[in-house]
Amino acid sequence: MIETPSNPHSWFEWIQLIATICVPVVIGIFTIIQNQSQSEQQRNNLKIAAENRLKDIEIADRNREKDRWLADDQQKENILIDYQNFLANLLEKHGMTLNGTSTARLIARFRTLIALDQLNSARRSFLIRSLYEAQLISFQTVQTNNVVTEFESFDTLRSIVDLSSANLSGLSLGINEDDNDECPRECIPGVGIDALVLSQTQLTNAFFRKMNFQGALFVKSIMDNADFRCSYLNGTNGGLTFASSLLIHAKFRKTCALDVSFQSVNLDKAQMHGMICKHCIFRDAQINHADLDDVEFYREDENNDTFHDKYENINFTETSLIGAKFDHLSLRGTLFIGANLSRICIINCVLSRDSVQFAAATFEKSTLINATIQNSSFDYVHFIDSNLSGAKIFMSNFTHASMKNIDLTGATLEMCNFNDANLAGCIMTNANINLSYFVGSDLTGCQGITDVQLAQAKSIAGAILPNGTKISST
Ligand SMILES: *[C@@H]1O[C@H](CO)[C@@H](O)[C@H](O)[C@H]1NC(C)=O
Ligand SMILES: *[C@@H]1O[C@H](CO)[C@@H](O)[C@H](O)[C@H]1NC(C)=O
Ligand SMILES: *[C@@H]1O[C@H](CO)[C@@H](O)[C@H](O)[C@H]1NC(C)=O
Ligand SMILES: *[C@@H]1O[C@H](CO)[C@@H](O)[C@H](O)[C@H]1NC(C)=O
Ligand SMILES: *[C@@H]1O[C@H](CO)[C@@H](O)[C@H](O)[C@H]1NC(C)=O
Ligand SMILES: *[C@@H]1O[C@H](CO)[C@@H](O)[C@H](O)[C@H]1NC(C)=O
Ligand SMILES: *[C@@H]1O[C@H](CO)[C@@H](O)[C@H](O)[C@H]1NC(C)=O
Ligand SMILES: *[C@@H]1O[C@H](CO)[C@@H](O)[C@H](O)[C@H]1NC(C)=O
Ligand SMILES: *[C@@H]1O[C@H](CO)[C@@H](O)[C@H](O)[C@H]1NC(C)=O
Ligand SMILES: *[C@@H]1O[C@H](CO)[C@@H](O)[C@H](O)[C@H]1NC(C)=O
Ligand SMILES: *[C@@H]1O[C@H](CO)[C@@H](O)[C@H](O)[C@H]1NC(C)=O
Ligand SMILES: *[C@@H]1O[C@H](CO)[C@@H](O)[C@H](O)[C@H]1NC(C)=O
């Protein structure tokens, strides 16, 4: 049953009363809300207007910038077109080798330098590429019968259009611009660039990754940060040289080089991890603070055991050469200071002094833990505070070597010659000195040498034993 209010009249009056009171209140509230939302609306409108103005300005700016860029780009395009027309006329008039008059080459050189100066790096690269294809910046291949020609002979070599002093920063001749620095371990040459001459140019940040250079001259160039990763450098017939160039921070990771000269270069902080270099010259190079882990530097010359590649007077301060392989190199006068040579492999190398030109190599504060040394000569070499623990050394000479305080813990020193070497204060715990000579060598204060060990040596005549006893020399 529906319940009806007991007094319908008073109920209705109540409603009326409440409504009467409420209407102004509701209107008031509505007005306030209305005002509020209106001012919010206004504010929003103002904000949108301001934003639109800003956007307009931005768009205008962007358009102006785009216009400027387009104008600039068009200007550069015109410079390139003008230059190409100029060159075409010049070549037509004076022949492809510009030998019509003596001034033709000079004019070409200066017009080229001016154009290069005004272009951006993409168009510069295009210009260089077209000069290369017209054979105006190459050198004639000279047959040198497999001998790496030293840089003196290339120093004055000029191409038809001489680019020396040009700023070619950021030059890119690479086709493959991707950042993938993986490359096959084997040396597989890609698309070739032959006999290019870029001597005495600025090539900072140049990009030559995965390129195949068959002869190239980079003499006295500024090549900091240049990228030769995975590239293939063959100087067998034409000659390929970086002599006297600055290659600070350059990247030669997994680069394969054959008959290449790096004489007197600066390769500080270079990344040369896994580089393979056959028949190269590194004489007088600065290679400090660099990464040369797992490099393979070697000469392959089956019929000539006495010939060594030129690696003399290199400065390897604080360089990492972990797992490197050196075979048939002359490392006379080379400095290994604070270098990490763990697991290095030195075979058929000479590090001793020669009477004419070079001092012996120096190892100072270097780590040669687990090194493999075979058939090499270290006569007169200094090992200052170096660690050769776990090294495997066979058939090598250390006569007159300075090896004070050297750590030879667990090392194998078989069939070696330590005659007149200074080994005072060495550590020879568990070292194997089977069939080695210690004639006249100084073992004063050496630790860990037992009579059983000494008995395995081929000869200790004239040596000073750890307790100071001198063996008679006969
Ligand atoms: C320029 O060189 C070409 C090819 O070497 C030669 O045939 C020509 O006679 C030379 N011209 C002059 C003017 O020397
Ligand atoms: C060479 O060009 C690069 C960029 O194109 C520039 O940063 C550098 O300063 C220039 N070097 C010289 C010596 O003018
Ligand atoms: C290097 O270049 C020479 C001469 O151009 C060529 O005969 C030789 O096959 C090349 N070597 C390799 C491994 O590509
Ligand atoms: C080894 O090669 C060097 C340089 O090519 C040469 O001077 C020397 O006579 C050669 N020695 C032998 C034994 O062939
Ligand atoms: C070798 O390089 C180090 C580090 O750059 C330098 O301090 C030292 O003077 C250099 N020594 C020689 C002989 O070049
Ligand atoms: C040298 O390299 C080895 C092998 O990577 C490493 O264990 C060792 O700590 C390094 N030594 C120094 C002195 O850097
Ligand atoms: C040296 O060789 C020993 C034994 O093979 C190994 O335990 C150690 O880790 C190696 N050390 C380095 C730095 O290669
Ligand atoms: C060591 O050198 C000699 C001559 O210098 C050579 O006949 C021999 O094959 C070399 N041994 C090794 C293991 O390279
Ligand atoms: C070591 O010296 C002996 C005698 O001087 C010499 O016959 C031999 O060839 C030398 N070996 C090496 C690897 O230098
Ligand atoms: C040489 O290296 C070994 C292995 O890392 C280490 O145990 C030893 O203390 C080092 N010797 C010296 C003299 O620092
Ligand atoms: C020393 O070398 C000889 C000849 O190579 C070998 O017969 C002998 O077993 C070696 N002795 C030790 C203790 O290694
Ligand atoms: C010095 O050491 C050797 C070999 O261990 C030994 O034969 C000799 O008696 C020692 N001499 C002295 C004075 O202790």
Structural class of the secondary structure composition? alpha/beta
Distance, first to last CA: 139 Å
What is the helix content? 25-40%
Principal-axes shape call: flat
Low-confidence stretches: 1-5, 141-152
Number of helices: 5
What binds here, in terms of ligands, is: 2-acetamido-2-deoxy-beta-D-glucopyranose
Mean pLDDT: 87
Largest sheet: 13 strands, parallel
How do the SSEs run, as a string of H and E? HHHHEEEEEEEEEEEEEEEEEEH
DSSP E strands, number = 18
Radius of gyration: 38 Å
| Content of β-strand | 5-15%
Transmembrane segments: 14-33
Keywords: Membrane, Transmembrane, Transmembrane helix
Organism: Rotaria magnacalcarata
Protein name: Pentapeptide repeat-containing protein
Structure description:
The protein is α/β, with parallel strands linked by helices and 474 residues long. The longest helix is centred in the N-terminal third of the chain and has 87 residues. It has five helices and 18 strands. Helix content is 26%, strand content 12%. Helix 1 runs antiparallel to helix 2. The N terminus is likely disordered. The strands form three sheets. Strands 1, 2, 3, 4, 5, 6, 7, 8, 10, 13, 15, 17 and 18 form a 13-stranded parallel sheet that branches. A three-stranded parallel sheet has the order 12-14-16, with no helix packed on it. Strands 9-11 form a two-stranded parallel ribbon. The radius of gyration is 38 Å and the shape is flat. The protein has a domain of 103 residues. Bound molecules: 2-acetamido-2-deoxy-beta-D-glucopyranose (12 copies). InterPro entries: 5peptide_repeat, Pentapeptide-BTB/POZ_domain.
